[in-house]
Amino acid sequence: MSDMQIQENSVVQFHYTLSENGNELESSRQGSPLLYLHGHNQMFAKVEAELTGKSVGDKLSITLAPVDAYGEVKSDAIESVQVKNLSGAKKWKPGMVAWLRTAQGEQQVTIVKVGMFKAEVDTNHPLAGKTVTFDIEVMQIREASADEIAHGHAHGEGGHHH
């Protein structure tokens, strides 16, 4: 089992640290490793490509240009939204990052200006325009269940819960 390699429909458990210019932005190391279903577009394509064929214990560092990560900064990304659709804090100030409920699901936005009922938000991802590095350590690999393949995501701790 330990010589299993990451391939299409592998469920991969991994720890990661995300950094920009050597500054750590986020890491899974304080909590549980993440789970994902390989080959189902749940990761940046370049990260998934680098993970293909890797085994448990492998460590890799992948640097992504903005186009391969969170995208370039769009200048027309300021939108006016209802404050009630924002979550993450009780009181909003410019520069804060919020979660915005949209028809496509939740999206991270940055508060530009806030009023009583409406807020102007920048819909660029907070890491848009940045070159980022993922340091990944593969913790576990297993075959996906038929359910996971049908749903297109991994189930269990660090994965998707229904």
TrEMBL record:
EC number: 5.2.1.8
PROSITE patterns from the UniProt entry: FKBP_PPIASE
SUPFAM superfamilies the record matches: FKBP-like
One GO MF term: isomerase activity
Record-annotated PPIase FKBP-type domain positions: 9-72
Entry keywords, A to Z: Chaperone, Cytoplasm, Isomerase, Rotamase
Protein name in UniProt: Peptidyl-prolyl cis-trans isomerase
Catalytic activity: [protein]-peptidylproline (omega=180) = [protein]-peptidylproline (omega=0)
Species this protein is from: Alishewanella tabrizica
Tagged with keyword Cytoplasm: yes
Phylogenetic classification of the source organism: Bacteria, Pseudomonadati, Pseudomonadota, Gammaproteobacteria, Alteromonadales
Function: Also involved in hydrogenase metallocenter assembly, probably by participating in the nickel insertion step. This function in hydrogenase biosynthesis requires chaperone activity and the presence of the metal-binding domain, but not PPIase activity.
Localization: Cytoplasm
Keyword DNA-binding among UniProt keywords: no
Domain of life (superkingdom): Bacteria
Major location (coarse): cytoplasm
Family (UniProt): Belongs to the FKBP-type PPIase family.
